[in-house]
Amino acid sequence: MAAIGLLVLLAVAAVSALPADPIIRKYEETRYNYVRGPDGTPHLVDFWMKTSDLRDTAKYNPDRQNVYHLFTRENPTVSQPLVIGNPNLLQGSNYNAARRTVILIHGYGGSPLSNFNLALIPSYLAAADVNVVVVDWSRGAEASSTVWSAIFNLLSSGNVRDFIAFIYDNTDQPLSTINLVGDGLGALQAGIIGRRLRRQIGYITGLDPTYWSAVQELLPQLRRNDAQYTEVIHTNVGNLGYIKPMGQVDIYPNGGINMPGCGRDDLCDHERAYFYLAEALTSGGFTSRQCANYEEALLEECTGSATVNLGGVEPKTGVTGIYSVQTNASPPFSQG
Q1: Is the pTM of this model over 0.70?
Q2: Distance CA 178, CA 193 (A)
Q3: pLDDT tens-digit map of 182-239
Q4: What's the rounded Cα separation, in Å, for the pair 132 and 57?
Q5: Residue among 182, 221, 175 nearest 201 (CA)
Q6: Theoretical Cys-Cys bridge with 311: which of 10, 46, 190, 277, CB 3.0 to 4.6 Å?
Q7: Which domains, from first to last, does the chain contain?
Q8: 3-state class (DSSP) for residue 45
Q9: Taking Cα atoms as reference points, which of 265, 275, 274, 260 lies closest to residue 240?
Q10: 252 near 327, Cβ under 8 Å?
Q11: Distance, CA of 177 to chain centre
């Protein structure tokens, strides 16, 4: 009996010596870091995958938790919900397939009330008679681990793809009349959606697409052929955002970082992408000059003869290149 008791004690000791939450994979040497949410609040995130993280897969199911909010000029401030698989709700809404449809996809830590949506919903409706659909994938975007934020971003893309297919099946709206506008992680999600729809989407706008080196293999970047026309606005390159070109047209305001009026604040830089787009939609401007390469754009030494205006409702199909533009420190941001 004494021998059995000793074995039990040894077994308990061995189990107690095991890590309480074993590490599955280390994506960076530094385990923890702060990442700012859209409200500016720093969130401590874990760059290592643990066994307990596997339970997080049950925390987000886009088929149940993604929500789609429709805004039109008939209902510019109060949304109408749209539900995949409910054609009666769609037909009873203000959705009009004869209009272009703009689908807004927020980024990490975002929600329907993020500044991204609050800035762009009224701007698109002021610019043109369009359907604006806000994708609420906040239950996936709020993950405390960058690994799961990346995975949930991929999961959400499948549900948004199903939503667009639902719209097409019930309205015959051409995919070429759909715009995907993504902020940060949402920009990468827009690219994945475009590929899932065989690159038939008419227009993708990527607003400072997120770059997390730790989980890059889980976050495929936006690509120039993910839509018939892709435009990327880079405002925090090398920190929160990608530094290299990703679209058919890549615009680097103010060299792509340290936006005037931001005081070297990464979040402020990042937000400038959608504030510039919002102003461009309602006021025009932001005439950008072509650069020989992105290094020239970063140095703000572009002397090309071609120009292009940032943003817009209609795709600039056929236009390509890298461009730079200078802005003011406060609204109006455009210098012309």
Answers
A1: yes
A2: 12
A3: 999 999 999 999 999 999 999 999 999 999 877 777 888 999 999 999 999 999 999 9
A4: 30
A5: 175
A6: 277
A7: 21-233+262-282 (3.40.50.1820)
A8: strand
A9: 265
A10: no
A11: 20
